[in-house]
Amino acid sequence: MFPKPALEVLAASVAFGGKPVFSDVSFELDYGGLVGLIGPNGAGKTTLLRSVLGEVPLASGAIRIDGHDRMKVGPGHLRPGSIGYVPQHIDIDPELPLRARDFVALGLDGHRFGFAPRGRAFWDRVEDALRGVGADSFAERPVGKLSGGQQQRVMIAAATVSDPALLLLDEPLANLDPANRSDVVALLDRLRQQKKMGIILTAHDVNPLVGVLDRVVYLARGHAAVGSVDEVISTDVLTRLYDHPIEVIRHDGRVLVMSSDASD
Amino acid sequence: MFEPYLLNTWAAGTLVALVAGVVGVFVVLRGDSFLAHAIPHGSFAGAAVAYALGGSSLVGMGVSAALTGVAVFCLGRHGRKDAVIALLLSFLLASGALALSLSGGYANQAYALLFGQILSVSSSELLFMAILVCIVVLAMFLLARPLLLTSVMESAARAHGLHTHAIEFAFTMVLAATATASVPVVGVLLLFSLLVAPPAAACALCPTMSRAVALSCAFCLACMWASIALAVMTDLPIGFFVASISTLIYLGARLRLKYLFRISNENSR
Amino acid sequence: MIAFITELLAVNEVRTALAVGSAVAVATAAVGVLTVLRGQSFAGHALTDLAAVGGSAAFLLGVDQLWGFVASCVFSSLGMHAIGVRRMRGRDVATGVVLGAGMGLTALFLTLARKSRSAGSSSMAVLFGSLFSVDPGITPAVLALSAFCLVVLALIWRPAVFSVSSPELAFARGVPMGALDAIFMVVLGVAVALGAVSVGAVLSTALLIGPAACALRVARTTHAAMLLSCALGVVCTWAGTILSYESYNWLEGKALSPSFCIVALIFGLYLAISAACRLSALARKGQVAHV
What we know:
Chain A has about 260 residues and is an alpha/beta fold. Chain A is built from seven helices and twelve strands. Chain A is globular, with a radius of gyration of 19 Å.
């Protein structure tokens, strides 16, 4: 009996007001796997994440998380804490009276009504999460006053403290400098191995992720190509996907995707 | 209804409607509803104090509206803007009420200031209002484009070298002037309706700014004239009619939009 | 000092004023913290003005204002929740329009009331309140409503703060955002209605926002913010009430209304705390420069 994948997307399509955003996208994400949703801006990557999250309904197809059909089951009814989500724009009020530690704590019990007491075991889990992302040095500081990179780590800790099956990150590398980028990639790689959670993240540049991705879902012009980095990021596949001459150049472990149109 | 002693009221009402129509469009665009609510409250305090001291309430109103604008502008940059404005509003209203109660003319005068009064405008005051309105319209004419840019794309505005803070401050002063011109007729608590509902209706119905401003003025004029007529006939406060009619205009615009939307959806199928 | 207080407490109106005022202050200050955190100060203010509709209607009908306030506040708050557009800007205009309509109705009711009876200045009491003329019979109701606010707040506190600090994560974790919103709006409505009983409909905002804004400038955790806010609210209410009572002696027959005193104290407190925060921020910069 094979264990169920953390996430299955089966021929999923989403349309807004009659206009298709993407059609017939299928892929799987195992526990402990790391999948990159790559593509240009506006391709529908965020929309796909939001469908997994349950915010955007599917026009057709199905999404299953841990075997449960997404559309039939609300977020609260999945195995507790089944999905963690780190948005692209972390918009924290600078005057929010929460220390980083409190912020992460909410990721664990913030959804419970009432006043369940927070004991030793609770705070240990919070501490572990903070340490896991390297945020224990600034755990006592007000979260609104941290730098963008620090806030992102705290956000990741908050999303993972409840040991979700699935972690979704929207453009986590977008505004980081190269050093921070490789730190975050290493962090995510570590998290998925230690906690055995399935991680899916979006990016418009695959390079920082080349070594760690199990699978790429390349989304462009409403369609997806799924496979390993080498399989998908190739001249043939991308030319077909974009319906436009594309050249993929590999150099020194880096990948460059270019339009090979003479007019460029 | 058109007795000579009411001519001033008709004239004042027309001026108020025109200025509210123009300024209101920008208030709606900028989401400055709360500010538009706050400044008239400030003018209440000034008018009350002026009345208590026996001076011209119009001047008192003008000064305090301007000062309120300044205060909101400065305080709002440091703390949470919403919270500050809310507190300032309350304090100003309370102070105004206090001034009136200490001077003895309490209920009637407070009433007139809060809800507006038909016979409130003397000829000299009318002249003052007319001048104020001209200044406001001129200022809006000059400010319109930069203000629009600042409101919609602040970073782009700054990139073009605009002093966004100065422009926003200028608009705050325009609001203060508008309030001063309008409060005697419409009242502190109800001016807000005129500044927001008909312009919002116009914005919802018109695709371009110039059409929105024109429609907004038209709505405000219709509202104002109807209100004056009804107030004369029923002896109920003008402000009540202004508020009710502007709300109806707004609801009408929203419903019509929904109706049009449904029609266009059916057409596209 | 003790003698002074006991003397004051011997007066019936003062006792009622303090009891009602304190119960109200605690509820509004606590709800206020969440209101400010959620950025709903304008909605709170709109509700206070809408309270005036209910109060003036009640006044017209001869019913105690508390029920008018409660009815119109809860009804309005649920209405605002139903209309509520997701976009901030939409909510702004919608709230504003409802507010304007409500004010119009208030004008109507008060005018009708003034015509049908020679009510005179007591119509102003709906708008501006007077703790000293509160009917002692409503004290149990006020206490019960205040307790209601506090209990519900305690129940929704964590999910509410969570939905403010990380809305997407809260949604992913299954916090029922819509239901939470609705519950909060009801509590907000009740708190605003209570505030209207104390300082009048139009001034109720100060009780809601003031102590909360002060506490949030200073506190480092949400619990501290709530406790501090309640404390400040009660202190201002007591000080304002006593000040108003004593002013009768100084001003030869006229008096500073308790509503004015309370609101003025709250505003002054906010300015003082703002200034102190700004000064200490400057001082810290100065210290860093010296090192």
